[in-house]
Amino acid sequence: MGFKDLFIEHQPVEEPRKFVPQEEQEQEPMSVEVPDNNTVSFVEDVYEKNGMTDLSRSIFKVEELASTLPAEMPDKTKRQTVMSIMSTFGLSLESVVEDGYNRVQCLENSRDILVDVLDSEIQENENSIESLKLQIAELQKENSMKQSQISSIKDVSTKETDRIKLLIDFIGEGAQ
């Protein structure tokens, strides 16, 4: 222990917990309110619908505090400093980390629910498209048959009118 260590207060440092994916956590699925499928504001909408708009006591406080520290400061020192500042604000490491886990779970659940809804809508649209393609094919077949009918009617009527015109010409010459 050096001379200057006598004047520096040392606080026990907790090792940071690593993020554990949702699949590996033993938690009950979180019930979430899912926003509309607005991709631009999806994250903000999820937070708003699920009461997570207060960032002052959230995992983002860590980001806010760390960003005020010098970039060249070692990560371990930054972590200790951030944890010390958080404790002066009355924020515990556990509550901030729990907020982070809750946000991750909420976002993932909302995403999965919305993806399922959109996938279902896509499948319905695909089914409608296939149905419409069949209808289009049937209508094209019907139009083709009608075009054939038109052609036949024109041929028959042209032959008949030509026959009548010949008869008129034949009889009309004698009537003059």
Protein architecture, described:
This protein has a domain at 33-133. The longest helix is centred in the last third of the chain and has 83 residues, at 93-175. The radius of gyration is 39 Å and the shape is rod-shaped. With 176 residues, the protein is mostly helical. Helix 2 crosses helix 3. It has helices at 42-49, 60-67, 75-88, 93-175. Mean pLDDT is 85; it is low at 1-13. The chain contains 4 helices and no strands. The termini are far apart.
Key attributes of the depicted protein:
176 residues; mainly alpha; 4 helices; disordered N terminus
As a percent range, the share of strand residues is: under 5%
The whole-angstrom Rg is: 39 Å
Q: What overall form do the CA principal axes indicate?
A: rod-shaped
By helix and strand content, what is the structural category?
A: mainly alpha
Any low-confidence stretches, pLDDT <50, length ≥5? Answer: 1-13
**First CA to last CA: what distance?**
141 Å
Largest sheet: none
Total of helices = 4
Mean pLDDT reading: 85
